[in-house]
Amino acid sequence: MRRNDFALRGLRVVTVKELQDFTGSARMVILTALILITAASSLYTATNTMKTVVSEDEFLLLSLFTLSRNPVPSLLSFLSFLVPLTGIAMGFDVVNSEFQNRTLKRVLSQPIHRDVLLFGKAVGALGAMTVVLLALWMLVIGSAMLVLGLPPSTEQVARALAFYGVTLAFGMFWFLVAMFFSVVFRQQATSALVSLGLWLLLTVFWSMIAQVVATAVGGVGSFQAARLEVLLSRISPNTLFAESALALLSPSTRTLGVVMFTQLEGALMGSPLPFGQSLLLIWPQLSALVALLVLLFTASYVVFQRQEL
Amino acid sequence: MATERQSANVVTLRNLSKIYGNNTVAVDSLSLELRKGEVFGILGPNGAGKTTTIRMMLGLTEPTSGSIDILGMDPLRTPLEVKRNVAYMPDDMGFYEDMSGYENLDYTARFLGLGYDERRSRILAAVSRMRLEHRLSDRVRTYSHGMKRRLALAEVLVKRPAIAILDEPTQGLDPHSTAEFLTLIRSLKKEEGMSVILASHHLDEVQSICDRVGLFHAGRMDLSGTVDELATRLFGGKMEVVVEVGETGNRDVAKILGTIGGVSHILQEKEGVYRVTVDSDIRPGIASALVDSDVALYSMDVHRHTLDAVYQAYYKEVHDAA
Amino acid sequence: MNRKSLLVALALVLVCLSPVWAYEGLSVATPYPSVTTGETELVIFDLTVKNYDLPPQRIDLSVSGIPDGWDYEFVGGGGLVDAVFVEPESNTKVQLWVAFNGGTASGRHEFSVEAKGSGHSFSLPLSLRLQQDLPQRLELDPELPFIKGTPDTDFTFNVALRNQSAREVLVDLDAQAPEGFSVQFSQQYGGKALSTVPLASGADESIKVTVKPRRDTPEGTYPVTVVAKSEAAQAIANLTMEIEGTPTLKVSGEGGLLSGTAVAGKEKTLAVEVSNTGTADVTDISLSAYKPSGWQVIFTPDTLENLPAGETREIQAVIQPSSNAITGDYSITVRANAKETSASEQFRITVKTSTLWGIVAILIIAAAGVVLVLAVRKFGRR
Prior knowledge:
Largest interface: A-C, 39 and 36 residues
Number of domains of chain C: 3
CATH topology of the largest domain in chain C: Immunoglobulin-like
Radius of gyration of chain C: 46 Å
CATH superfamily of the largest domain in chain C: Immunoglobulins
Strand content of chain C: over 45%
Structural class of chain C: mainly beta
CATH architecture of the largest domain in chain C: Sandwich
Oligomer: heterotrimer
Largest sheet of chain B: 6 strands, mixed
Helix content of chain C: 10-25%
CATH class of the largest domain in chain C: Mainly Beta
Number of helices of chain C: 2
Number of strands of chain C: 29
Strand content of chain B: 25-35%
Shape of chain B: elongated
Strand order of the largest sheet of chain C: 1-3-8-5-6
Shape of chain C: rod-shaped
CATH class of the largest domain in chain B: Alpha Beta
Number of domains of chain B: 2
Helix content of chain B: 25-40%
């Protein structure tokens, strides 16, 4: 039994509606405002720091993301905190609200396939997040040009764009996590709590757990323990994001994770890697993130499709 | 072709079964036919398989076995084409509360692939019929329950379907609105030749507008037809004469009644009151028979069997059998 | 005793003054009344006309007995004069300029200056000897005329320059050296570069001659001639440089490129050029590399028996970075050791990540995509 109709019929309608919901909801307006305000504050301090420190930084635009001065954290730390929250805020009720409002049956009795609704929600969320982050990027690039007085180099723009993509994927990961729970749990409060709990676990506690487990298995201070710790911490997408950000925003980053002393012998440190090499460096992280996205969506998809209305 | 063969039927279900994963049999070898322009009522207690059957017709649930034919189409093969021609008003319908009534209708209308003007004119027409035009741009959050029901029916109208499946459409409506509703369904049937499947617990309602009804029990619909047919099937006749007699002494009234031609069933309700099921109005025959037997006849009342009676009798019978 | 010595002194003064006391009249005096001169030279006599106890008077001056071919003038107070005026017991200075204008042969010529006052006159006899110009003589004397060295060294000769003539001369220094050699003169001490040396009569000066040969000058002896030239004399010093050949090894990448890329754990061939930019052969060259541990560098060939001067050999260096080398730049030193000399060069090897894992990663994504597609196929029918 195969579907004969166009499989994605109505996708555009759902996507547009979800996009309007995401961008227009009070929740998103508040979060976006929060992101933009924090971004502006950390950009302000970063540019001020930059003015006082006269340095021939080849990657000025990129350092806007990473520079910080007490008590304002860097833009990167703000992002790694707020982007997951945005994703969760968007996703935790995306499906179960349809159940709770009892709108699902009405919509699904229209000439669309059921999965189109899920696709549309994911695409709509992607669109909304793209727009919010794009606004943020404009802010950063604008600030960079204000400080520099000239447009940043192509290399930097490419790196900033790649980081944009990574951030988007990171945000989408948390959206999909929340969406998965919103498919699994009929109660919005449950899915919100579980999503936030998982976020808390992976953001705050995971590094501790990884450390404890690694020391327990490998012994204190051993190379194996360090390796295991890195391996374990990479289960958390936060680590994937942090490592990707590091490699993209600090071009002199040559390796991630544990390095043996012998590997550094003869290495010329401090020289930046070309963009392509940085990208190759985080390729495993990126592909893991993307594969996670696909699998998470698939999980939501299977559960949603099997659900009785 | 299939459509020609079943030209009179817009819906044909054959031996439809649905067994859920946990071996719950929701629908069991169900067969049903809906003719064009017919209003078909499906009745039955909760969990009898009504909703599952409706969902299978829309392709929202996949049947375990059996075949479905909606307007010559299989909802499993062409679910979108089926959904385009079948409107469904679920019993627990809801709307996007933060959107206006118009936006809600427009959203679902977009799925029909209609242009802006067409959508607008259809929505305005449907809404004015439902007397909602004054609240159209208000958020659904501010609507009363009855208004939401009317909005849901407006949505059905916007679709202009060949078949409308209404699940408990009058649930929670005040009597006035209910009456309006029923009038509307009748007019839809008459004016637009719409076929309607109506699931309801309000038996009088169903009786008043349905051409035929089907009684669901444990996933089966063993009984279907006009109310008269059902009554005939259950009681042997479509009418009932309630006979009230005086002191009978030791005369067996039931026996006397049983000898009258055309009497199919006699039930002694209480002392001196007998319910006699008949096929036609044979009161004169009953009267003369009783009088001939010297029984004092106090009153004699004839009426058709109500759906309610049929329903009660059927489920009592089913219950007793179980 | 005091009186006695006073008397003796007085007597002595009287004795000394007595001739002056005695003379009365005019005198014309000059310190050098007899002069030898060249044909082109102007002879100046400084005359002092003195009046001894005569009244103030004009004194006319003239020259008598001067042969043909000689011109003369009296010069005083910046102009030509014929007479002087002299107060009593005083003198007036005047010059007599005499120049030869051709004609009379050489020899001694006698003439006199006549001074004529009122009633007194005086005659000063002068003599001129016309002669060929005095021969000027310069001497150039190298301390060590023969020096050995390599083409990359400076050859420094010390040369003594002596003026063997009666007058101060200006000496121009010049040198003739093979093409491409640079020659510089300087003072012995102080090191200032010179090209002209003023030298007083009989004086000498020690000159340093620094010769820089061309770097690629082949083995051999090369003459350098230093010429010192004054107006009328010159001297020559012949110097000899014996230049020995030197082997100079150089290691570089192909086309001078000192960088390359390699993938971790993968062999990469890098062309290394070993060249002898010197002037003598290099023998027994062996190549080695200073590399990070876990790296492999193999040269083919790894030895060269002989590399003649000016020649370049290409050597294939197969570099295999350690399989756990991290992305980015590493430095490797390639060293060429020969019997005579050695050379080394740092190469920057950029380790790139293998794209193999990138493909694997894409496959993982693709697998996830396949899972999604399968899910859609299985559950997407509703």
